[in-house]
Amino acid sequence: MTNVIEIFSSIQGEGKYVGCRQTFIRTADCNLNCAYCDTNFSSAEFCNVETSAGSMEFTQIKNPLDAAQAADIIKRFSAEIPTHSVSFTGGEPLLHWQFISEVAAQIDNKIFLETNGTLPAALEKIIDAVDIISMDIKLPSAHFAEHREFLKIARAKDLYAKIVVTAETAPEEFDAAVDLLAPEDLLILQPVTPVKNVRAIDARKILELQARALQKVKNVRVIPQTHRMLKIL
Ligand code: SF4
């Protein structure tokens, strides 16, 4: 049983699979506390579930959910709209690795994991069930040792790393994060969407950071959060 914030159908707004149709399962709770976090991941009494895939209208079901309840909703959405994959997001979904594993066993969809990449032991437990891993490296980070372990396991699957870059991103911290990666890894640089007190990054700095990363990693792409531009979920 797991506390889930919301379940809905939308487009993936970030990274390598931007624009793909997905069902999103947003689980509660996170093990980090990033300054630019724009996600409400607090546990709530009820989970918001879209009434039909993409309707943007919601009904509520009582938390916590068991895997069969989540799997039934995923199957219903997939019957309504061909769906690229099911994205487990958060918060930090790997806090709920057992739930993910149980849901994955009951559905046919590809499993897409959006994670902060700091819980390698949890990833190891469900790596066979996961198809695609979007791993964030949050800066500044005190979790490089965990990221290293995480990457070793995650490279068995379709993996890309993502770094959110802001006006405050320090070049030395950025270089240290890029050093975690292998030349063949895909790296997405995501210019921050300004929220709270976080300032936008200017174009010159984005290009400078991409140039720095390209010294180490061959495939470095700059992709902003497109769902924010479209004002879509
Ligand atoms: S890891 Fe993600 S969900 Fe957790 S605090 Fe950071 S930005 Fe928010």
Account of the protein in words:
The structure is a single chain. This protein is of the alpha/beta class. The chain has a single domain (4-230), classed as Aldolase class I (TIM Barrel, Alpha-Beta Barrel). It is built from seven helices and ten strands. Helix 1 (67-80) packs across helix 2, helix 2 packs parallel to helix 3 (120-126) and helix 3 (120-126) packs parallel to helix 4 (144-154). It starts with a strand and ends with a helix. The mean pLDDT is 94. The structure holds iron/sulfur cluster (SF4). Iron/sulfur cluster is lined by residues 30, 32-34, 37, 39, 41, 90-92, 116, 138. Iron/sulfur cluster (SF4) binds at residues 30, 32-34, 37, 39, 41, 90-92, 116, 138.
Describe the structure using short key phrases.
single chain, 233 residues, alpha/beta, TIM Barrel, binds iron/sulfur cluster
Biggest sheet statistics: 10 strands, mixed
Question: Roughly what is the average pLDDT, rounded to an integer?
Answer: 94
The percentage helix is 25-40%
Within the largest sheet, what's the order of strands? 4-3-1-2-5-6-7-8-9-10
Structural class: alpha/beta
Quick one: overall form?
globular
Radius of gyration: 17 Å
CATH fold-level label: TIM Barrel
Strand content: 25-35%
H-E order: EEEEHEHEHEHEHEHEH
Q: How many β strands by DSSP? A: 10
For this structure, what is the CATH class?
Answer: Alpha Beta
Architecture per CATH nomenclature, i.e. the level-2 architecture:
Alpha-Beta Barrel
